[in-house]
Amino acid sequence: MKQSAKTFALGASVGAVVAIGLNLLPYWRSYQAYHGDGFEVLGFPFVFRRMGGIAGIYEFRPELLVADAAIALSFAALAGWVAMKLSKIASRSGRGFPVVPRSDGRTAAE
């Protein structure tokens, strides 16, 4: 596997973990809120599951789950692309002076 593919996979993995964490963040913040009169929610940026309230409802919206998954995949792909581009920029800079061969076959550094 080429180095750029490894860098993309690493960046996409980090992006996927961030997207999954953002989807779970509302759940962690509202965990067991249904015991009172609150809602336990799941999803970011669209809430695709909520449970609780005074009436005790359970709502699951699969179309919002698909939209959240599509946004998460797009974010992961974008993070992988950015990681790949940053890796290429970082590999080009800071290499020092180029080694110039001399006419007798030796390099200038020798």
How does this structure look, described?
This protein has helices at 3-29, 62-92, and strands spanning 39-42, 49-52, 57-60. The protein is mainly alpha-helical and 110 residues long. The protein has a 3-stranded antiparallel beta sheet. Helix 1 (3-29) packs across helix 2.
Report a brief summary of the structure:
This protein is mainly α and 110 residues long.
Taking pLDDT < 50 over at least 5 consecutive residues as the criterion, the unreliable ranges are none
How many domain units?
1
Order of adjacent strands in the largest pleated sheet: 1-2-3
**Strand tally:** 3
- As an assembly, this protein is single chain
Helix/strand order: HEEEH
* Structure class: mainly alpha
- From the spread of the alpha carbons, the general shape counts as rod-shaped
Integer-rounded radius of gyration: 25 Å
Counting DSSP H or I runs of 4 or more residues, the number of helices is: 2
Largest sheet: 3 strands, antiparallel
Instruction: Estimate the mean pLDDT confidence.
Output: 87
User: In whole angstroms, how far apart are the ends?
Assistant: 35 Å
Helix content: 40-55%
The fraction of residues assigned to DSSP E strands is: 5-15%
For the structure shown, list the relevant keywords.
110 residues, mainly alpha, three-stranded antiparallel sheet
SSE layout and pairing:
Layout: H1 3-29, E1 39-42, E2 49-52, E3 57-60, H2 62-92
Antiparallel strand pairs: 1-2, 2-3
Helix pairs in contact: 1-2
